[in-house]
Amino acid sequence: MTIVENALDAPRVIAISSGKGGVGKTFFSVHLAAQAAKQGLKVLLLDADLGLANVDVMLGLSGQGSVKQVVSGEASLKDMLVKAKQGFDVLPGGSGLAELTALSGVQQQVLMNEMQDAAKAYDLVLIDTAAGISDNVLFFVASAESTLVVLTPDPTSLTDAYALIKVLSQQRDVRRFMVTINQADKVDGELTFRRLLSVSDRYLDVHLDYVGHMARHEEVRQAIQKQTLLHHNQAAKDLEKVLQNILNQPRDTSRSSGLQFFWQHSLGQGLNVENHEGAWV
Ligand SMILES: Nc1ncnc2c1ncn2[C@@H]1O[C@H](COP(=O)(O)OP(=O)(O)OP(=O)(O)O)[C@@H](O)[C@H]1O
Ligand SMILES: [Mg+2]
Question: Fewer CB within 10 Å, N- or C-terminus of the chain?
Fold first, then answer.
């Protein structure tokens, strides 16, 4: 069977990433999971910010298990899942566990096998990664069908998003990215996306799809404080549009044949990263 023939049988896997931290990845991940679940999709959210996990905190979940027991072989991924009341499953990432911040090759393989197996029961698998370009991040993004890059109009967030896209494309052959600009109005969002696009088009062989902006809303901070999700307010409506754009993006049939395929494929990629110093001047 060719990749294209079996592509749509496999669950859709989306990694949510950013260059700079604190830009809203976890906020987008939990709301995307909730919106997809509301539409009847079976959703699994993996907290892949290993060691500094936040998904369970944002959802007000408690539980003993985490990815730690999975990578050590003590438990299967399915046994560590926690149910969010919004109707999706979560694999917590484990907090304060320094040993998880750089998975070994063996641990990656164990986790990949478990993810492959567990993913079969879902329509959509979301992977909320750590910020930056650590090996863990590259591993998770390379295993996904699509990647959502979250950034803000802050110039440091912009340059870090570019760096992430550069490393992923040159080291792991990830060529297509959805981009959302958080904490920005419409004009700032479009401007920021255009800046990212112009440098990426000039120096990288990638394709960027803009899925929209999310304004800064006080309700976001309040919801996070209360460990609840946005509900029936302007912020929720604004966010819903972006999330729907993400869910409406066509499947990438060239990358949807399963997690393991991409991980193994990405290991074979060259490790040369070209330098484009001065790209922003
Ligand atoms: N649209 C928004 N309006 C207001 N505040 C926001 C918005 N988006 C995010 N925030 C604030 O930014 C904080 C960080 O968000 P979040 O934890 O989702 O970021 P992150 O990218 O996952 O961070 P990390 O890199 O640490 O994992 C939130 O606690 C919230 O207070
Ligand atoms: Mg986070």
Answer: C
Mutate to test the pocket of ligand 1, among 16, 18, 20, 23 (most ligand atoms within 8 A of CB): 23
Tell me whether residue 85 is in a domain: no
Looking at per-residue pLDDT, the higher value among 278 and 177 belongs to 177
Asked if the structure places residue 199 within a domain, the reply is: yes
pTM of the entire predicted model:
0.92
Give a three-class secondary structure readout of the chain.
Answer: CCHHHHHHHCCEEEEEEECCCCCCHHHHHHHHHHHHHHCCCCEEEEEECCEECCHHHHHCCCCCCCHHHHHCCCCCHHHHCEEECCCEEEECCCECCHHHCCCCHHHHHHHHHHHHHHHCCCCEEEEEEEECCCHHHHHHHHCCCEEEEEECCCHHHHHHHHHHHHHHHHHHCCCEEEEEEECCCHHHHHHHHHHHHHHHHHHCCCEEEEEEEECCCHHHHHHHHCCCCCCCCHHHHHHHHHHHHHHHCCCCCCCCCCHHHHHHHHHCCCCCCCCCCCCCC
Q: What is the pLDDT of residues 96-155, one digit of tens each?
A: 888 899 999 999 999 999 998 999 999 999 999 999 999 999 999 999 999 999 999 999
Q: What is the pLDDT of residues 204-250, one digit of tens each?
A: 999 999 999 999 999 999 999 999 999 999 999 999 999 999 999 99
Give the number of domains in the chain: 1
Which atom of ligand 1 sits closest to the CA of residue 20? 25
For ligand 1, say whether the CB of 57 is within 6 Å of any of its atoms.
no
Q: Could you tell me the CATH number of the domain that includes residue 116?
A: 3.40.50.300
